TrEMBL record:
It comes from the Bacteria. Its EC number is 2.1.1.189. This is 23S rRNA (uracil(747)-C(5))-methyltransferase RlmC. It comes from Superficieibacter electus. It catalyses: uridine(747) in 23S rRNA + S-adenosyl-L-methionine = 5-methyluridine(747) in 23S rRNA + S-adenosyl-L-homocysteine + H(+).
């Protein structure tokens, strides 16, 4: 992938961009093998990857500069701003939206937040695109509600110019910290969730709910989990750290009992909406802490699927899973280091299968799916 920003030394986010993609994948596999070296792996599956550019469905843009000439991108450590609207990781469909938003910021009087001076209102613009129909969700992250009336007044013209904006909201983030969003979300459109679809499974994206940023590889990840589960004798499944329900919704069958647990209520609302669309009535999604839920249960499912954040599932959940001993565990990880630590704390399981998914080209990061079978 060629990137003018990288060549000009203005952005180094894609640290591996100079490596051929095949070499990147080989290096990631070598890293994964080294992390799992002390463990016996029965089958190493062929790694899966997707496009090398224009693959992102989401842009998180720091807004800086002036109200007349805003910059959308990032701030370097020294405080200087870099516009990233030409980043080749974004699809071409993002360009007209970025182009329209810059003059809109001026028309709405949304003064960019100045970190050094702690002044201004507009902190971030968050843009997400659905691969299903090209619909988009746009979120304005503001310091306060001071400019909300001005934004509302200017919005109809933007919506007429960009009809693909299906969901528009304002997030209020009042604190002077490097936090992307606050707790309060104010919707400016009647529609509050963006419709998406992977592998003919309906999914919904709401503000403040996690959703994968690489749809092509995420689709492969969910489809692989579904294939693995379908080959196992599973009638009762837990989907822990389930997010919007991508794994559970792919794996569920009309006769399977499934419980999905995620701490974010917004994500659970998405999962319930998808389950209703699919007509699956044995799926139960709840907004709870996954570890607390699991350790408080008395029954034992046939399979526990975990998809934790980077910190992993931790000792408490590993100990409980070892004690409860479900026949199967599927572990989806975005941090192979913490996954390796967790796997060492599950000695009652053999590692039947491991597969790498190159969700983040041009970086050292990747996702892993692992199938564990009770000994």
């Amino acid at each position: 992938m060629q990137c003018a920003l990288y060549d000009a030394d203005r952005c180094r986010s894609c640290q591996w961009i100079e490596r051929p993609v095949a070499d990147q994948l080989s290096a990631k596999m070598a890293d994964l093998r080294a992390l799992l070296n002390a463990l016996t792996i029965e089958e190493w599956c062929t790694p899966l990857s997707g496009p090398a550019q224009a693959f992102r469905n989401k842009a998180k843009m720091v807004v800086s500069g002036s109200v007349e000439k805003p910059l959308l991108g990032m701030l370097h450590r020294d405080g200087t701003a870099q516009d990233l609207t030409s980043c080749p990781l974004y699809p071409a469909s993002f360009a007209p939206v970025f182009a329209a938003l810059k003059p809109f910021i001026a028309r709405a009087g949304l003064t960019p937040y100045n970190v050094a001076r702690r002044r201004g209102e507009l902190k971030y613009l968050l843009l997400t695109e659905s691969q299903m129909d090209g619909g988009m969700m746009l979120r304005f992250v503001l310091r306060s509600e001071t400019k909300l009336a001005q934004l509302r007044a200017a919005l109809p013209a933007l919506q007429a110019q960009l009809p693909q904006l299906k969901v528009i909201s304002v997030n209020i983030q009042p604190v002077h910290m490097a936090i992307m969003e606050g707790e309060k979300e104010i919707f400016l459109t009647g529609q509050q969730a963006l419709a998406e679809q992977f592998n003919n499974v309906p999914l919904w994206i709401r503000p403040q709910s996690f959703f994968q940023t690489n749809p092509t590889v995420a689709s492969q990840l969910y489809a692989t989990a579904r294939a693995w589960v379908s080959a196992l004798p599973v009638q009762h499944m837990w989907d822990l750290f389930c997010g919007v329900g991508g794994f559970g919704l792919h794996c569920a069958t009309p006769t399977m009992k499934l419980t999905g647990i995620e701490i974010a209520p917004e994500a659970i609302a998405c999962a319930k909406q998808s389950a209703a669309q699919l007509g699956l009535h044995n799926l139960h999604f709840q907004a709870l802490d996954s570890t607390q839920f699991a350790t408080a249960q008395g029954d034992r499912p046939d399979l526990v699927l975990v998809n934790p954040p980077r910190r992993g599932i931790g000792k408490a959940l590993c100990d409980y899973l070892s004690q409860m001993a479900p026949p199967f565990i599927i572990y989806s990880s975005c941090n192979a280091q913490t996954m390796a630590q967790d796997l060492r704390q599950l000695p009652g399981y053999r590692i039947a299968r491991v597969q790498l998914f190159d969700m983040f080209p041009h970086t050292a990061h990747y996702e892993v799916l692992t199938l564990l079978i009770a000994r």
